[in-house]
Amino acid sequence: xxxxxxxxxxxxxxxxxxxxxxxxxxxxxxxxxxxxxxxxxxxxxxxxxxxxxxxxxxxxxxxxxxxxxxxxxxxxxxxxxxxxxxxxxxxxxxxxxxxxxxxxxxxxxxxxxxxxxxxxxxxxxxxxxxxxxxxxxxxxxxxxxxxxxxxxxxxxxxxxxxxxxxxxxxxxxxxxxxxxxxxxxxxxxxxxxxxxxxxxxxxxxxxxxxxxxxxxxxxxxxxxxxxxxxxxxxxxxxxxxxxxxxxxxxxxxxxxxxxxxxxxxxxxxxxxxxxxxxxxxxxxxxxxxxxxxxxxxxxxxxxxxxxxxxxxxxxxxxxxxxxxxxxxxxxxxxxxxxxxxxxxxxxxxxxxxxxxxxxxxxxxxxxxxxxxxxxxxxxxxxxxxxxxxxxxxxxxxxxxxxxxxxxxxxxxxxxxxxxxxxxxxxxxxxxxxxxxxxxxxxxxxxxxxxxxxxxxxxxxxxxxxxxxxxxxxxxxxxxxxxxxxxxxxxxxxxxxxxxxxxxxxxxxxxxxxxxxxxxxxxxxxxxxxxxxxxxxxxxxxxxxxxxxxxxxxxxxxxxxxxxxxxxxxxxxxxxxxxxxxxxxxxxxxxxxxxxxxxxxxxxxxxxxxxxxxxxxxxxxxxxx
Length: 624
Hints:
By secondary structure, the chain is of the alpha+beta class. The chain folds into 4 domains: 6-226, Histidine kinase-like ATPase, C-terminal domain (Heat Shock Protein 90, 2-Layer Sandwich); 233-377, Ribosomal Protein S5, domain 2 (2-Layer Sandwich), CATH 3.30.230.80; 401-495, Rossmann fold (3-Layer(aba) Sandwich); 499-623, Four Helix Bundle (Hemerythrin (Met), subunit A) (Up-down Bundle), CATH 1.20.120. It has a 9-stranded mixed beta sheet, covered by helices on one side. A 5-stranded mixed beta sheet has the order 10-11-14-12-13, sandwiched between helices. Strands 15-17-16-19-18 form a 5-stranded mixed beta sheet. The protein is elongated and about 115 Å long.
């Protein structure tokens, strides 16, 4: 008989780096490897259940689905096997030889930077299988895809260095068998009690039974003992489930090492019949901002696993929500295309959005510290809500958090309800300013009149803020108003010092005329203002014009932006303006006005078209 040919492959270069980190420095809680391998086996069985709905022959006369664990102390091996979907040669190479994700460089950078937070990375990047090399000198995998012939089995072998071998073998049963050749210092994982303890800790509530091979000393025979409950946690009565069981199930479901912040378990009967178990994580996944970020709920239909990452049930701004949905109303042969065009999907989505917002609302009221952790981690994602979900915009707005002048910290922890409750008697609207950074917003000259009158202003410095504010029109009857735009309500704030023509000297009136003539169409208008206390001048957007921050967003997205024409407002009480007013040399006067305009442009936009000319003009005037 001809010996099967062994083919040698090199790991993808990123996998080599990953294995080196994992073996030498990454994981500290090594028992996690067993949770990862059992979880993978459970997923393989779930996939077989789904595929066999339309192809029952995939069961190959064996529908008793299970995971089995055995040890051989003499050979120092630990074996985990399942009779799930299995793999063919192509699957084996793709799943075990590469990291089939974009953003791999970012991933590896994260591994390097988080070495001191080792456990946070367990499962975070979907690399659970590679954790087996933490405890093994060598790993071999015997696998066969369900529905293929026994001679189409695959043997995969590697010591986790730089390469792996693949050999065609005969495997009578479908599924996957992983053999770990344990390192001498890891022989604790050959002890039956140790394995039982790990399975009980991490895998008690997976839907697949896990069996451990035991030896009966009295009868000198081996027997299989079931070592987990193997009952779907979500179908149990909520009162019978402990908090720890909910947390352990979350970790099994998401491969996240951290406990969730909060969760909601809901059984619904009536027009719709479904069970949802939704979790809010502590930490954002590393790729949450990637375009191809996989998110969504794990979908079951009548307790049968259907698919992972069902994003059809939650909008993008809730993509951080993890968990599962078990529906009695969807067809078992459901596909993503069917989901998108199914009325039941739309109804379930509405219900799950409502439930998700309810979880956050509950956390914001009853667990303020937890909600602040949530906001610090996911606030940027949640800010996409007003643009995506107009139907729930009031609930979303109530959950938003901001910082402000009076807050005096960059941490966003003020709700709109709190802001409104602290509003000044003179105040008609919810005032805000957008800028490139917290410091830029906090020190904007637009704030001077508000600081003087002790009126609070929301300071918005996240990139998404300007976009978000286009959809936030009002809250509890109070309209939002950007203070960098012209508005009648702002002019009313400081009535005591409102500028009147008969309060302004003839010299100042002539000064204004000269400035208007000099600047011409470079600005939309030139006028005196009572907005300023410490600043000589400022640029203001017309009420109907695009704001500076919105223009920056369009420009960053590669969109053409119309030329912005600002209103140039001058503070007639400022000492510099009073001095410039009496300069008789026309060239010197012109240089000062151009310098002030450049200063205002720099303050408003953060850049100048010709900074060298600005510096040269300033130096020239300083010398005088």
